[in-house]
Amino acid sequence: MMKHSLPLRALSRFLQYPDAELIQHSAEVTSALLAMPKLTKKVHAGLVDFVNHLESADLYDLQEEYVECFDRGRATSLHLFEHVHGDSRERGQAMVDLLQTYKDGGLELSANELPDHLSVILEFASTLPLDQSKQFIGEMAHILNAVYSTLVARNNRYAWLIAAAIEFSGEKFKIVELKIEEESMDEEWAEPPAFGGCSTRGQSKPGEEQPLQFVKRAKEFKGVQP
């Protein structure tokens, strides 16, 4: 097995919904993660802080935190194509193309897995040779930096996991300016007032893209204190 394979799979596991099995094996997963090549001291310390929190917090609280962090808004969604295509038809075609890439590489997904989830992307990258793996993740660095920036703004420890993925790719994790007016997912799909129409706001224009625009700052971010 290639040296970067286990660290990427460990990172993938930590980015999945936390459960009792993850807590039980957190020491082994952490050991694999911290063996990631060329991990800087800053990111190493951040990952240790994340794991300490994971191991000391109540599982129910961890699960609630995960849902609140990743499932209630697009700014931190781990389904990366949402940041590019929203709910448009282009996202569906992009996922079909990505599934074909996985199939060509020998990775078969279960029925409940979406191919653009970051944990799946990292799992696939773990099967590639190092240079290809870095390039594959690096192509998404601009999206990952946007997610990272939002997590930092929310003082969330998951920012360190995103930073580790970016750093592995050879890109620099940094704060980017986000000009986004975002509704929570609950608000976006809320039913309209009585007699206010026959479709929800989230469904009213299914064929139109609603892209997120990210504008980078001129200077790089020097640190993170999630």
Counting copies of identical and different chains, the oligomeric state is single chain
Major sheet: 2 strands, antiparallel
**Widest β-sheet, arrangement of strands:** 1-2
Rg from alpha-carbon coordinates: 18 Å
N-to-C span: 33 Å
- The shape, in one word, is globular
Beta-strand residue percentage: under 5%
Task: List the secondary-structure elements in sequence, H or E.
Answer: HHHHHHHHHHHEHE
Q: Could you tell me the number of beta strands?
A: 2
The helix-and-strand class reads mainly alpha
Q: Total number of helical segments?
A: 12
Mean pLDDT: 82
Lay out the secondary structure.
Layout: H1 5-14, H2 20-24, H3 26-33, H4 41-56, H5 59-70, H6 81-85, H7 89-104, H8 118-125, H9 130-138, H10 141-153, H11 159-169, E1 177-178, H12 185-188, E2 214-215
Antiparallel strand pairs: 1-2
Give a written overview of the molecule.
52% of the residues lie in helices and 2% in strands. It has a two-stranded antiparallel ribbon with strand order 1-2. It has 12 helices and 2 strands, in the order αααααααααααβαβ. With 226 residues, the chain is an all-alpha fold. Helix 1 packs across helix 3. About 18% of the residues have low confidence.
Task: Record keyword descriptors for this entry.
226 residues; mainly alpha; 12 helices; 2% strand; globular
What's the short version?
The chain is 52% helix and 2% strand. It has 226 residues and is mainly α.
